[in-house]
Amino acid sequence: MKAILSLFLLISLTSCLQAQSNGIITQDVATFKKTIQSKKVQLVDVRTPSEFGEGKIEGAQNIDVKNAEFKNMAAKLDPKKPVAVYCRSGMRSANAANILKEMGFKKIYNLDGGYLAWTK
User: Fold this and answer.
1) Which residue of the set 74, 83, 84, 87 is catalytic?
2) pLDDT for position 2
3) Residue 5: pLDDT above 90?
4) Residue 39: CB partners within 8 Å, gap ≥ 6?
5) What domains does the chain contain, in order, with CATH numbers?
6) What are the residue ranges of helices labelled H in the chain?
7) pLDDT tens per residue across span 33-88
């Protein structure tokens, strides 16, 4: 029983380390709120401009991940500073986080559940 518990603990710790080592950290609303309070974090809403116009998290800039110019617009961000991304439900922001990672951004926070979770 101890061996099974030890193995489970080891796998859990390894999974956590891998999730953080890839530079993308998915956070619940409460944790994301704390993260974006930092002046160093760049907050990016990756929804469409019309969605952004309907409501946003204060301080967010809009860079639509579905826009063909997403990478060019995202390149204006500082890759040395953390980036926090969100969308409507969390799917597009996960995609945007992966693109940012490929572009060389080191620390990326993704809001689990997106703007829908934020406004609940």
Assistant:
1) 87
2) 56
3) no
4) none
5) 23-118 (3.40.250.10)
6) 2-21, 29-36, 49-54, 70-74, 91-102, 114-118
7) 999 998 899 999 999 999 999 999 999 999 999 999 999 999 999 999 999 999 99
- Collapse the DSSP code of 29 into the 3-class scheme (helix H, G, I; strand E, B; otherwise coil) and give the result: helix
Those residues with Cβ within 8 angstroms of residue 57's Cβ, 6 or more apart along the chain or in another chain = 36, 43, 45, 86, 115, 118
107 SS3 class: coil
Residue type, 54: E
For the question of residue 16 being annotated catalytic, the response is no
